[in-house]
Amino acid sequence: MNTELISFHTTATSVSEALETRHSIREYLPKRIPNEILHRVFSKALRTPSWKNSQPWKVHIVNGNKREELSKELIQTAREFPPRPETSWPESYPSDAKRRMFDLGMKIYEAAGIDRKDKDARNEFMLRNFDFFGAPTAVFITTKFELNYFVGIDLGCFLQSVLLLAREEGLGTCAQASLGSFPDVVRNSLELPEEEKVILGLSIGYPKPNSELNSYHTPRESSEDLLRFY
Hints:
This protein has helices at residues 15-21, 35-45, 64-80, 95-111, 119-127, 149-168, 183-190, 223-226; strands spanning 58-62, 137-143, 172-176, 197-205. It is α+β, with helices and mostly antiparallel strands.
């Protein structure tokens, strides 16, 4: 399927189409998502499987004035302090993963019109994470569970369900570990209990058409390299 020909203003009619055409969206229309669509996406995602049906996720969907207020607080905090996530981010990767990550960075900066050597421009682009790339809705995924490998798998499965269900509705998304950078800011803004850990989030909305930044689809390694049949 030629993903370049897929319009995000159309819905996906199969899981395969949603998976093949979904990619990270970093420019959105200001159009608000109807509440019934948001409710449909996240209610369906609750069917995601989890370890012994533990369902370790809680979901916080932020719109309107609260979204604007939280964005300003996150941007201000990110300008002044380094990230302090609830769980450590990976620091070392195999060489093939490093190659893919470097290539992604180069392509995204190119699409955004940023010279990779321009540190100030790169920093400002990073801050766009905390304005949710202009998306009308920000989502934070939290848990009260002790963080471990299996809880991480469950949260990842839940996130994937949301990404594909959003694509089914003609919505774009960007999954963001960065939205777990400053958990205290999110907890305070959303009045969450201290034991509720802010792990990650996503931006969701209607993709801006004819956007150079939205046109880049990350490649995948071939099935011959990654799949083994016995």
